[in-house]
Amino acid sequence: MRKERCRNILMKRRVRVECYCRRSSNYDIERKVRILHKLIPNCESSMGLERLFRETADYVLALEMRVKVMQILVNELSA
Question: Does the keyword Ligase apply (predicted)?
């Protein structure tokens, strides 16, 4: 009887910990998506994840191109 009671208590604690971990994980993901929405210019908050990731990839490519252009300008002007 006592052994079964201890087992039930442990199971309840495990379930609580697992729920907390899942909730915490979901919260972290949602927080990161909100931050990403803020970082991407002209990004609507109602945008779906797939479109958000596409917009993010396009924005990163645009930034890379800007850096390359600036590197070329610096090399040409310093020569």
Answer: no
Query: At which residue do the structure tokens 């990004």 appear?
Result: 43
Domain count, the chain: 1
Cα dist from 6 to 3, 17, 20, 36, whole Å: 5, 17, 21, 45
Question: What are the backbone dihedrals phi and psi of residue 41, each rounded to the nearest 5 degrees, phi first?
Answer: -70, 150
Task: Give the pLDDT band (50/70/90) at residue 18.
Answer: low
pTM of the model: 0.64
User: Could you list the residue range(s) of the whole structural domain that residue 66 is in?
Assistant: 6-78
Q: What are phi and psi of 37, to 5 degrees?
A: -55, -40
Q: Is residue 1 part of a domain?
A: no
For residues 50 and 48, what is the distance between their CA atoms, to the nearest angstrom? 6
